[in-house]
């Protein structure tokens, strides 16, 4: 099956299997920021944007991105690096395995709700699992991050 889409604003044409998931397709193209965690849509590690909205690539058939725009961490590298530095300065980073999915969701949240409440942050990020922390350092950093942007 042939598909045509944009990955990080670059037009791509590719042959896929009808049952191929977007996660597998992206990783087969060398995009390693999209992590494979649970394969059940429960951990958030595989988060990408499809037409600017976060989706779990492990649960989306690659055929569904026909003609659409897919953005991975590589496509928002400058923003991602800036936010990663902020997390590190706040002591909110750990091993980094969950970071790509977390960063994609935080940047999507920032675009959708530039001034979220603490409750909105928790709701938006509910599907991101971190194996290292109890999330408190991340939430404190996120509250500060959005305050710096004029939030809360």
Describe the fold and architecture.
This protein has 152 residues and is an alpha+beta fold. It contains five helices and five strands; from the N terminus they run ββαβββαααα. A five-stranded mixed sheet has the order 2-1-5-3-4, with helices on one face. The relative contact order is 0.16.
Please state the average pLDDT score. Answer: 91
Low-confidence stretches: 148-152
Total helix count? 5
Q: Could you give the count of β-strands? A: 5
The rounded Rg comes to 16 Å
* Biggest sheet: strand arrangement: 2-1-5-3-4
The secondary-structure class comes to alpha+beta
Termini distance? 47 Å
Percent helix? 25-40%
Order of helices and strands: EEHEEEHHHH
Major β-sheet profile: 5 strands, mixed
Give the overall shape, derived from the CA principal axes.
elongated
Strand fraction equals 15-25%
